[in-house]
Amino acid sequence: MSSEPWQMGEIAGPKKALIITKPAAIVGMLKKAKRALMVVGHEISNYDFEEDSAVDYMIRIAETFKIPILATAHTVSEFVNRSCYPVWWMSALDIANRLQDREWEGLDGKGQYDLALFIGIPYYMEWTILSGLKHSAPNLKTISLDRYYQPHATWSFPNIKIDEWLTHMKEILGQIEAK
Predict the structure, then answer these.
(1) What is the pLDDT of residues 103-140, one digit of tens each?
(2) 91 lies in a domain?
(3) Domain of 63?
(4) CA angle at residue 37 from 74 to 41, to 5 degrees?
């Protein structure tokens, strides 16, 4: 398992993401969160999980923990087509700006988020967003669910192969369904 950035030219600084070694820990973090948000980018459509799509996995996680989904680009239609509500659309850069804004009361107007999960955003863009959040939103914890190490997240998977990543995602769902 590697804890180095997937794109080697990136230098994270002294504070780096904790590596997720036990996917069940994500379920624990979701249980502890008071207000979580799931940010889903267009690259989620690149992931297929045998019997279900990655979108279906994210819907199951969001519904179990009552997490709103904030989709970028055309991804919102993937959720709407599956009758997943609530789901919102916003550009990735606007999401980054809003999560850093201490005055923003969230999508529902009920307050700031304390945990944000990210998946499917292009690596270089997620890197930049998470870097900004690490420095400008100190009360927000972030989890990168992608299969490449994101050193600016609070927690991230290491660089892993697709089959190992799929196994981890299934383990997360197994923990959720056992809940």
Answers:
(1) 999 999 999 999 999 999 999 999 999 999 999 998 99
(2) yes
(3) 18-178
(4) 25
In a domain, 9, yes or no: no
pTM of the model: 0.91
Name the amino acid, one letter, at 7: Q
The CATH number linked to 81 is: 3.40.50.1220
In a domain, 13, yes or no: no
- In degrees and rounded to multiples of 5, residue 33 shows phi and psi of -65, 135
pLDDT in tens, 134-168: 999 989 999 999 999 999 999 999 999 988 998 99
The stretch 81-100 carries a mean pLDDT of: 94
b or e along 35-49 (b: 16 or more beta carbons within 10 Å of the residue's beta carbon)? bbbbbbbbbbbebeb
Rounded distance between C-alpha atoms, residue 143 and residue 131, angstroms: 13
Residue 5 within any structural domain of the chain? no
Q: Would you state the pLDDT for residue 12?
A: 63
Nearest to 66 by CA among 81, 87, 50, 51: 87
- The CA distance from 3 to 100, in Å, is 26
Per the structure, the count of domains in the chain is: 1
Burial of residue 53, with CB atoms counted within 10 A of its CB: 0-12 exposed, 13-18 middle, 19 or more buried: middle
